[in-house]
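Crash report, auto-generated. Payload:
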Amino acid sequence: MDPFLSFTEMRDKLRKWREDNCRNSEQIVDVGEELISDHGSKLGDDVWIIYEQVMIAALDCSRDDLAMTCLQELRKQFPDSHRVKRLSGMRLEALERYDEATKYYEAILQDDPTNTAARKRKISILKAQGKPAEAIRELNEYLEQFVGDQEAWHELSELYINEHDYGKAAFCLEELMMTNPHNHLYCEQYAEVKYTQGGLDNLELSRKYFAQALRLNNRNMRALFGLYMLAGRGTKENKCSVKAVEEMLESMQITMS
Amino acid sequence: MKMASSFWKGIVGVGLFALAHAAFSAAQHRSYMRLTEKENEMLPIDIVLQTLLSFVMTCYGIVHIAGEFREMDASSELKNRTFDTLRNHPSFYLFNHRGRVLFRTPEQEASSARNQQALPNPLRLRKLENFQ
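Recovered output after restart:
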């Protein structure tokens, strides 16, 4: 990491990482710590969201001192905020004090029953304690109320995949595909889940969705590989030979470049 | 165009002012027509020209202030997105991963080692109990 990044470059890097959901915590801690200590005054109102970002990254890197500093600054500025209480809860979770963290979140929920962040943290605590079945049940209840939460649908699909319940994982991914029809990654993940499930119908469906993913983004390597794996399989009536796949790829202009 | 955004803001301001001025002149012209009972006359050409030109100038200025253009095709924006970042759900982050131990500094290591030695080794005691 170039030690002489300018202030604007550091701030823009942090913003990009925040928007893209990157979890490169070591880098965030390096850049964020320098930004806060050296250029704190120049940041203006951005400083609070950077404190939050750096605090979560510090918990990942076991930098409890830095996390505590950020948390104290946020508490001073926003004394009664639910968002800051959630961050305190996250710090307790990182220290493995799950019961105290659960109490924190329940206090938030008593105050504000519609607070989604606290409910999601409670589900994460169940996941961290190794209770996947309960986490799945709670997440299902949450999604019955908040149907549009895409992050939660993706999280649920991941939980189901870990439990090898591919049918339900496929259902979650279908929900995601319905709301994001242009996203090639959801198509490709759905095709992979169907491929793992196995059985002729699922393989057929899988091939279709790999092709769809390639149509949306012709540089998706995993979808290309999935399509290649499926070429030559299928029923006797519509056996898709390798030659046919090659012709199709040519028509979609996917060359060897 | 890497000119200062204050220049473009100036352009938008001038354009809006000229637009307002043209609207005011047109209203004045209309009331003058009503007074002199010549209601069928067209607006003078300079007012029309001023309106059109200031409109174009405002639009051009706003385009430069508004920020980067995005592609129309929704799927092309996602071409560079990978599962590395798509799979991260910030609201569901867990902290019980090996990063908590991997990134520990030497002072933290020393203090945790000291704490460990203070406790008796529970496994060994349990094994001894079974034999007695």
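Post-recovery validation: The interface with chain A takes residues 74-75, 78-79, 81-97, 99-105, 108 of chain B (CB under 8 Å).
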